[in-house]
């Protein structure tokens, strides 16, 4: 029973994806202009290569942002049930926040939050 349901779901997904692709190809606008393949940014023509190295600091900053953004996602369910669990909930979230603050202090000390 589960196998047939699984196969049905997979086949439906494949059919929908293929149908969307075919419909987009059939009714989508076509442009065979040479400039269509050129990189575009704010209407300014590019000079040289568009592949420029990006500082690793941007990626590190983004990862830290995601870390602390996800942390708030974990704090919300905890705040909803804190009264039901009592002191143990306070201790566990205190430990969770301590680990996060130590991680932030480590990143700050390493200079991950500075734009250079």
SSE arrangement:
Elements: H1 2-27, H2 56-85, H3 87-110
Helix pairs in contact: 2-3
What does this structure look like?
The protein is mostly helical and 116 residues long. Helix 2 (56-85) packs antiparallel against helix 3. The chain is built from 3 helices and no strands. The protein is flat and about 65 Å long. The longest helix is centred in the middle third of the chain and has 30 residues, at 56-85.
N- to C-terminal distance: 59 Å
Shape, per Cα inertia axes: flat
Broad structural category: mainly alpha
Radius of gyration: 25 Å
| Biggest sheet layout | none
Overall pLDDT metric: 84
Work out the strand percent: under 5%
Low-confidence stretches: none
Helical percent range?
Answer: 55-70%
Tally of extended strands?
Answer: 0
| Distinct helical segment count | 3
Encode the helix/strand succession as letters: HHH
Brief sketch in words of this structure:
With 116 residues, the chain is an all-alpha fold. The chain contains 3 helices and no strands.
Quickly list its features.
mainly alpha; single chain; 116 residues
């Amino acid at each position: 029973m589960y196998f047939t349901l699984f196969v049905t779901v997979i086949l439906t997904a494949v059919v929908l994806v293929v149908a969307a692709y075919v419909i987009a190809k059939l009714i989508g606008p076509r442009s065979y202009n040479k400039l269509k393949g050129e990189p575009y940014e704010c209407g300014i023509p590019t000079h040289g290569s568009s592949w420029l190295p990006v500082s690793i600091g941007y990626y590190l900053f983004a990862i830290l942002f995601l870390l602390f953004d996800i942390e708030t996602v974990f704090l919300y369910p905890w705040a909803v049930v804190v009264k039901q669990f009592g002191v143990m909930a306070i201790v566990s979230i205190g430990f969770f926040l301590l680990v996060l603050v130590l991680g932030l202090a480590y990143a700050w000390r390493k200079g991950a939050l500075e734009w250079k």
